[in-house]
Design a protein that fits this description.
The protein has 151 residues and is mainly β. It has one domain (2-148). 5% of the residues lie in helices and 56% in strands. The chain is built from one helix and twelve strands, in the order E-E-E-E-E-E-E-E-H-E-E-E-E. Strands 1, 2, 3, 4, 5, 6, 7, 8, 9, 10, 11 and 12 form a twelve-stranded antiparallel β-sheet that branches.
Amino acid sequence: MKVKKERNLTLKQYTLHDARVEKIELNKDNIILKLDFITSYPQGKEVFHKANVILDNIDAACCEVYVFDKLVDCHTDNKFSGECLELKKFVEKYNPLEFEIINELDDGYNIILDGWLYINKEPVSCTMNFWTEGSFIYDIYEEIGHRIISK
């Protein structure tokens, strides 16, 4: 089932929080984020779905990834370094990957995923910035689990 995200809503049907990007596929007109799962919250349940995200009508040359040298925490340490890579170079260097999504932001043309990139099993801060005029599509395969979160 493919679900197109309504990009003007403040409440989301699905969330990528805690999902892990396992691979990024670059195609001519879209990018596919291969995920371990996404989450929805219908009627007091937390439901996990096997799914991917498709970003269409994307300009990969206008997408970049910031990879820091460590976990960045401005409360304890405000000095860091890292690199900014074009998406294609990031994919060549890190695919397959393990990127845990902590925060997601969609402000119209920019989709920003902020989280932890695991390099040799050690996390470093990482921010992915995707520029698109197209759709954000959840490509959902199946429910893989759930838990009750309220009565």
